[in-house]
Design brief:
This protein has helices spanning 5-23, 30-41, 48-56, 60-69, 89-92, 96-107, 149-159; strands spanning 81-86, 113-114, 120-125, 137-139, 142-144. By secondary structure, the protein is of the alpha+beta class. It has a five-stranded mixed sheet with strand order 2-3-1-4-5, covered by helices on one side. Strand 2 (113-114) and strand 3 form a beta hairpin. Helix 1 runs antiparallel to helix 2 and helix 1 runs parallel beside helix 3. The structure holds FE2/S2 (inorganic) cluster.
């Protein structure tokens, strides 16, 4: 039996509703709900917005406004690996900008983009809580400190042969 696109969309709506409903009693539930959806489903799809709005009794415009305001929320499917480079002050002071430029060159994408083969999404982040060990990066959620361009190549080599 095959699963068609409509089935997948319905499954996603069900999962989004489930995630939102489980958290709607939280104080300020929208942000935690969006994080949970992104963690579970990879991104916040435009079709998720009315479902979340319905569960929280908000307007779709309100939910959309929050999704688009925060850089943390991805609105399209990301790559199989996500590389996040810290561009906040402490990391900038020890070479984060050069590291970011190196990553953009090596991957051929800008921040917020995914390589054409779907392998890697490059994201910027403003502090990973690892300021004493900058430049800091995260590869699929795993934190790395004092990352030089050579070390970044090595880390990427593990996920992008
Ligand atoms: S400034 Fe980069 S981890 Fe805090």
């Amino acid at each position: 039996m095959t699963t068609n696109v409509t089935d997948l969309a319905a499954l996603r709506v069900g999962r989004v509703r489930e995630i939102a409903t489980a958290r709607r009693g939280l104080r300020g539930p929208l942000i935690p709900i969006l994080h949970a959806i992104q963690e579970d489903l990879g991104h916040i799809d435009q079709a998720d917005v009315p479902v979340i709005a319905d569960v929280l009794n908000l307007s779709a415009a309100e939910v959309h406004g929050v999704v688009t305001f925060y850089r943390d929320f991805r609105r399209e499917r990301g790559g199989r690996t996500t590389l996040r480079i810290c561009r906040a002050e402490a990391c900038q002071a020890v070479g984060a900008e050069a590291l970011g430029a190196h990553a953009r060159r090596r991957l051929g994408v800008d921040f917020g983009e995914t390589t054409s083969d779907g392998a890697v999404t490059l994201d910027e982040v403003f502090c990973l809580g690892n300021c004493a060990l900058g430049p800091a990066v995260q590869v699929d959620g795993r934190l790395h400190g004092r990352v030089s361009p050579a070390r970044l190549d090595a880390l990427l080599g593990e996920v992008v042969p």
